[in-house]
Amino acid sequence: MKLRNCNYTVMFKRIIYITVFFVFFCNTYSCSSNNDSTSASEEATGLSDKMVVRKAGEDLFISAKMDKTTDIVYWFKKCMFNKLYTFYRVSIISNQFDQPNDVFDKAAGTTLNSTFSDNIGPFCISGHGWCGGNHPYVDGKTLTAYNLSYSIIVNGKEFTEDTSVTSNDVEIKVVNAIMNPAKPQVIDNVTTLKDTLCTEYVDYHIYNNNIQVSVKHKFMNDEAVDIERYYGMQSMFAGETHTLTANGKYTQWTPQSEVSTFLKKDYPLFRRFIEKNNIAYQSAYLFNTGLGRHNEVSDDDFIFIGNSNGKTYHKLIGSRKHVKGDEQEWSGVYTWFVTPIVDNEGLFCYEGIIDKKNVIFLDCKKALKINLVLPEKYKKKTLYMLENNPYVEVTRGKAKSSDINIVATKPASCVISFR
After folding, report:
1. Separation of alpha carbons 284 and 313, rounded Å
2. Is-contact 297 318, C-beta < 8 A?
3. Number of H helices, E strands in the chain
4. Over the range 351-377, which residues count as b (16 or more CB within 10 Å of their CB) and which as e?
5. CA–CA dist 221, 336 (Å, integer)
6. Which of 173, 277, 358, 390 has the smallest C-beta neighbourhood within 10 Å, fewest atoms?
7. Dist CA 413 CA 363 (whole Å)
C-alpha cells in the first residue's frame, strides 16, 4: 500500500510538471507570435519594416531597410541659419542583414540629401528680402525665424529619453515662428525682427525610405505683405546627374546641366520631380491639396525650378498678398531608393509609401502599350488610381497575378495603389 501511494505521488507530480511546461510553451509561443508578427511587406520581401530610432540630445537618428543590402539613415537636428528642426542629412549605408542597422555614426554612409541650404522653404517678401529656412535678414546676420518647439512621437507616445527603440511609426512635429522682414527694429545699432509674419507648423512622418511632410502657415501680420516667392518643397539631392519631371517638360532623363524651368500654363499637371545620381534616386511628390494645386501661382509663372546652385524647387506662391488671419498649407512625400521596379527607354516605375500604404509611381517616357509585372506583394489586390492622367490607362493583368497593363498615348505619369 505504501508503494502504491508513492507511485500515485510521483505520477501526480509528473502531471503537474507536464501541465506547467505545456502552459509555459503555449504562452511563450503566443507572445512570440503577437510581438513578432510580420506585415505584408515583410512577408513579401523578408525584410523588417521596423525602424531603429535613437535620440541623443537634440539629434534624432532613424534607420530603415531600403533593400536587401542597403539601409537608409535620417538625421534630424536644428540646422540652417535659423536653427530650425528638420532632416539635416539623409544617407545610405551597406547592410546585408534583414534588420536595419542600430549603430549610428554621424560620418558613416553616403549622403543623398544634405541641408546645406533651405529645406522646407522660406518666403521672399517683396522689397524686404527673405525670411525663414536658411536665410538671414538683408544685413546678413539677423535671424528671420525661430524654432518654438519640436516633439518626437514614437509608437504613439512622445519620445523624450536618450535611448534607442524600434518602431514602424515615427512622427516629428515642429512649430516655428517666421519673422516679418518688413518690420525691422533697430536698437543701439542692432537690428532685430520682433514682429511675427506667420507661425509655421511642420509635421514629418517617416515611413521607411519616405518622409511625408505636411506644412501649415497661420499669418500674424497686421499689414499685408506681398509674397514674391515661396518654394516650399525643395531638394538638395547630392551629386545629381539627371532629372525627370512627371507630367512636366523633362519626360526623359535629362542631364542636370540642361535642366532649367517651365511654366504652369505649359505643364498644369506637374507636381513631381525625380533626380538621380550614380547610386540612387530621390523623388519629391507634391500632393494635389492646398498650395499643391498651384492656385497661388499664375499661368505665366514658373512652377518648377531646377539646376539652381545644386537645388531643385516646387514653386508654390508667386506675387500674392497675405495678412493676419490667412492660412495656407501643403503636403507631399520625399522618397529615396536605389533600385526602381523598372527604368528603361519607355517606362520609369518605382515604389513609395503614402499614409502608410504602398503606392507605385508610373512615368511613361513616351507613348507605349506594355504589360508590367510588379512585386509579388501586389498579387490578388484591387488596383485603384491615386492620381489619374487622361493620357495613360492602367488596368489589372491576369487574374491572381501581380501584373498590370499600361497604355499611354503620349509621355504621361500617374500614381496607383492597391487594396
Report:
1. 9
2. yes
3. 2, 34
4. bbbbeeebbbbbbbbeebeeebebeeb
5. 37
6. 390
7. 4
Q: What is the pLDDT of residues 176-205, one digit of tens each?
A: 999 999 999 998 888 999 999 999 999 999
Beta-carbon contacts of residue 47 (< 8 Å; ≥ 6 apart): 41, 65, 67, 68, 98
- Cα–Cα distance list, 211 to 89, 170, 227 (Å): 12, 10, 27
Residue type, 108: A
Start-end ranges of CATH 2.60.40 in the chain?
Answer: 342-418
Q: Which residue has the cell 518688413?
A: 182
Residues in the chain: 419
Confidence of residue 308 (pLDDT cuts 50, 70, 90): confident
Residue whose grid cell is 541641408 = 115
Query: What are the tens digits of pLDDT across the range 29-68?
Result: 333 333 333 344 444 455 788 999 999 999 999 999 999 9
Nearest to 406 by CA among 368, 376, 359: 368
- Fold topology of 342-418: Immunoglobulin-like (2.60.40)
pLDDT of residue 398: 80
Cα(351)–Cα(343) distance, rounded to whole angstroms?
12
Q: Look at residue 33 in the predicted model and tell me its pLDDT.
A: 32
**Which 3 state secondary structure label does DSSP give 33?**
helix
Which of 115-124, 145-154, 276-285 is predicted least confidently? 115-124
CATH 2.70.98, the chain: domain bounds: 45-337
Nine-digit cell string for 243: 532629372
Q: What is the pLDDT of residue 88?
A: 95
What does the block give as the cell for 257? 546641366
Integer-rounded Cα Rg, in Å, for the chain is 26
Strands 190-193 and 184-187 turn out to be: antiparallel
pLDDT tens per residue across span 334-368: 999 999 999 999 999 999 999 999 999 999 999 99
User: For residue 196, what is the enclosing H or E element?
Assistant: strand 196-207
Q: Worst-scoring range by mean pLDDT, 17-31, 247-261, 308-322, 387-401? A: 17-31
Residue-wise over 261-296: b if at least 16 C-beta within 10 A, else e?
ebbbeebebbbbbbbbbeebbbbbbbbeebbbebeb
- Alpha carbon distance 213, 133 (integer Å): 15
